[in-house]
Amino acid sequence: MDPDSVAKAFVEHYYTTFDSNRAGLANLYQEQSMLTFEGQKIQGSTNIVTKLTSLPFQQCQHAITTVDCQPSGPAGGMLVFVSGNLQLLGESHALKFSQVFRRTLGGRVSGPSLIAILDVSFDTVTSRKLLCVE
């Protein structure tokens, strides 16, 4: 399977799981993975999923606009850049987001280097970094 197809399949799986069952993301992270959320550092798959499931919105829907990838690190590793819209239940407008993943051979998101950054734009002048996973 070519890298673009792998990246697109990973992104589809990640966001479908995030939108329907965030606890199901646990097997995509390793114990050395780290999530930084508003200055708080959270390490390990279990702790990251605990944080993701405790976010103040329970239902959301991601609409992916772009998926770009390039090889990175050991054979089979890649950087995946994703952008799109995030619609929260009860909100009238979608939020813009972008996220970067570093995947390792075997399909897991690795650490301790940069894995994911989620920037959400609330309007044309306001942007807030919600999640940074290292």
Give a written overview of the molecule.
The chain has 134 residues and is an alpha+beta fold. It has one domain (3-133): Nuclear Transport Factor 2, Chain: A (Roll), CATH 3.10.450. The protein has helices at 3-20, 45-53; strands at residues 34-37, 40-43, 60-71, 78-88, 95-103, 116-121, 127-133. Strand 4 (78-88) and strand 5 form a beta hairpin. The longest helix is centred in the N-terminal third of the chain and has 18 residues, at 3-20. It is globular. Residues 6-101 form the NTF2 domain. Has a role in nuclear-cytoplasmic transport of proteins and mRNAs.
Write the layout of secondary structure elements.
Blueprint: H1 3-20, E1 34-37, E2 40-43, H2 45-53, E3 60-71, E4 78-88, E5 95-103, E6 116-121, E7 127-133
Antiparallel strand pairs: 1-2, 1-7, 3-4, 4-5, 5-6, 6-7
